[in-house]
Amino acid sequence: MNHKNLAARSMNEPENGGIAATTDTRQKVVYGLLLCALVCSLFWPAVFYRYANYDDQTVVFENPILKEPGLSGLRKVFSFFSIKSFYPMRLASFAVDHALWGLDPSGYHLTNILIHLLNVLLVYTFFLRAFPRTKGGGAAFAFFTAAFFGLHPSVVDSVAWIAGREELLMLFFLLCGLHFTLNMPAQGEKRLLRHVLIAYLGAFSCLSNIYGAVFPALAVLGYRLCGGERGAVRLIRLTWYLWLIAGAAFFIKLVSLGVYDQESNAVLFPFVPEAIRNAGTLLSKTYHETLASLPVADRVRLIIGLYGLNVLHLLAPLWLPVMYQNMYPASYWSAPVLAGLAAAAITAVAVYRARKDPLPLFCLGWFLIALAPGAQIVPHHIYRADRFLYLPLIGFFGALCYPVLSASRRRGETAGKPAASTRTGARALLLVYLGLLAARAAMHLPVWSDPLTLHSYCVKQSPDFYLVHQYLAAELFNERDYDRSAAEYEKALRLDPSQRYQWMNMVKALTAGGRIAEAEERLRKGLAENPEDYVLWNDLGLVLGQRQKFDESVEAFRKGIPYAPNKAVLHLNIAANYIQRHLYEQAFDELARAREADPKNAFVLYQLGLAMERRGDLQQALSLYRQAARLAPGYLAPRSRERMLAEMMRQAQPMPAPPMEAPGPALGGIP
Known about the structure:
Blueprint: H1 4-9, H2 18-43, H3 56-61, H4 70-77, H5 88-101, H6 105-130, H7 138-151, H8 156-160, H9 165-181, H10 189-206, H11 215-225, H12 232-259, E1 260-261, E2 266-267, H13 272-277, H14 279-291, H15 296-315, H16 335-353, H17 358-371, H18 392-415, H19 419-444, H20 451-461, H21 466-478, H22 482-495, H23 501-512, H24 516-529, H25 534-546, H26 550-560, H27 569-580, H28 584-597, H29 602-615, H30 618-631, H31 636-650
Antiparallel strand pairs: 1-2
């Protein structure tokens, strides 16, 4: 971007001499230091927080990829899905943290705080550079915009939650890219180098979080309003490669939505290349499970309602539940939809009034563009989250600060009052508002201090949401408070009976607490009400097996099979029962039935391969291991066993018989 047009816009600013320029520079430095002090003082306590046991355990503490050094680990970082998403830059940053801090959560929290601080300073310097002397802009505007962004309660979740680093990194790379678009050289090698760097930063932003896909739209907005570039063809020529990168990122995101199987709680294609080769199947699954899950009229109401809720939340973030329960407006007269329509009308008026003023128009455009990915225009499995506002915050508060600062100047000039007096009043008003928001953020931050505090808080905020009870129950189980854990699982099941896996969780807690007879009694009561629920038959079989009632256990599993003929889990648990009693032939027959029920289940094929080895049919075992490895590239056990068996067969050495271990207990599917 060049600044030819900005010279004209800043004609109303007085000419500064050397002393004034020095004062201005000193003011900018003071503002920057003040931002550092404010952000660090707010978030420093988070350095001493623990893991939250909310995805961070999976992506950090229990992640084997972080423990693999060198190129092997780096290759897996950029080729494996992480939970339900492909965000390798986040995973790569965790690998660096692991090398520096091991598994100490303090180091990971410190990194989050430092990245957020860098983002705040990048926001500050961006507005200083993009709109240096535009009316209403300057150092005060850049400071307040960056401060509202850095201290708003909605950013707490992204900063204090280790797994929330994806938003931090996404914005860091995006802001670096936008900085490089400023003062773009007219031609030559430096211009080409700039574009290469911008392309890499755009890709890194998308590989941190899908919100990075808005980068090309923000770049177009910047080129147009900051650099004065005109013409659609010109803007496309400047940003075409960014649109390609964003399109590729969006494609991978859609594929990733189909990778995770909710019922089996497993990743169907852990390898990204394998998932892309099966993109047709996964995109179809994504469409039917996500994109087509809501009628058009309901989705329109949802989009409007979410817009109103997000605007109100940015202005007055009083309720911060961390986990938002899905709530779909029933009519156009519901409160969220009416709030959304009012917010949309106000936004339209603001855009119209700012149409000739580049700074507020840029901020409003930033807000609307950045809000789009989380607006449910493209359906997402997460209904709403404060971290979705991390990027839109910047534009929203830029648009809010501009009229306050510019109006104070105009009012002072009209009334004949000293400009300094009216500016001081406006800044004092913004400081009071900023202080209130920072105080709310400071109150919310300790929620993340440890997992029990976090999940207890979530239950208090959303007592009718089954998921928060599930997380609290899991944490109580980890704390060995089995009675309370069972009670929370029971509440989760009562709030949403469709979440049938809660039965297994509740039974597990009852059993761990020595209440196994009660677990059996509750399952029998559940079956009296729902005799065709195979999950309950499966759970009852497991409990009876733990009570050494083996024949009754097998009978319970078999009663569930007619209600789940395509599920391997019941056959697997029968096989586990037989193996426990050293009845290997019966176990083999049951594993064969499991394969008939689910022929593409990699876990079943691996277990059957082990049984074939024990029988001495090595070629068949080798074939089964290869099939399992091909179906689930991320499932390492069959690949490892295949290599061992192939090497032994090549050297004509006797292969030790594999241990015939129980494959279960399992529930709802096998990964």
